[in-house]
TrEMBL record:
<feature type="region of interest" description="Disordered">
    <location>
        <begin position="233"/>
        <end position="260"/>
    </location>
</feature>
<dbReference type="InterPro" id="IPR036291">
    <property type="entry name" value="NAD(P)-bd_dom_sf"/>
</dbReference>
<feature type="domain" description="NAD(P)-binding">
    <location>
        <begin position="16"/>
        <end position="201"/>
    </location>
</feature>
<dbReference type="InterPro" id="IPR016040">
    <property type="entry name" value="NAD(P)-bd_dom"/>
</dbReference>
<feature type="compositionally biased region" description="Pro residues">
    <location>
        <begin position="240"/>
        <end position="250"/>
    </location>
</feature>
<protein>
    <submittedName>
        <fullName>NAD(P)H-binding protein</fullName>
    </submittedName>
</protein>
<dbReference type="Pfam" id="PF13460">
    <property type="entry name" value="NAD_binding_10"/>
</dbReference>
Amino acid sequence: MWRREAFGPPRLLLFGGTRGTGREVAGLARARDWEVVALARASAAFEPLTALGCTVVIGDALEPSHVHGMMRVHGRGAAVVCTLGGGPLGASADFQGVVNIVDGMVATGLRRLVLVSSLGAGDSRAFASERLLAAIGAVLEEKSRAEAHARAADLDLTILRPGGLLSTPATGDGALFEDPRVHGRIARADLAALIERCLDDRTTVGRTLSALDLTTLQAPEGVVHLHSVARAVSGASGPPDAPPWHPGQTPPHLTGPHHG
């Protein structure tokens, strides 16, 4: 489990932080006064990250030496979040980028990884629509291979498989499911909030979870959610061994049925 250093705020190493979900994660982490170190290509629009107070390391996730070097210098006591996929790095980031991150963590002794994959990867592929497989089947295969590589490593791993990603404001209705048969969509901002909660909650280690908005959920009868952003209640204590929140903030208590 991720444990922060005895002194100073928690530290997050972020891959994919210059856009989409990754940038949302950076904003949430900095709002809690976490240290955020993001790897970004020189051509990427990383100014919003520096404006948030993030440290930006110029490099390429497809270059193992860049990833390993970042981890050696900045990794002590850090958790890792990977939201790589799509964008200028293309499909190669979906597998090789993840391989470089996982191998770098093993080489440098880092433990905690939240890996964002996709519905339609791994065992959820059997429940994906023909339309989805026709559109991004090759990408999903790369993500499946990346998931398998991450699972084979000795890491404190949580895999999140979001549904269709929306660039809309957060609804507060994001939720996590262990059942691979679910379908739906989720705003990137809500997905980022669920990533943050996974970092706080040691019970998500070793799990592969689908991330969807409850209002778009399509699922077999009886499917229950593990955690829901909408059901967070401020003022309650967090889960055991969760990294403490920044002074002046109250940690959310994650509720909802646990199963499996």
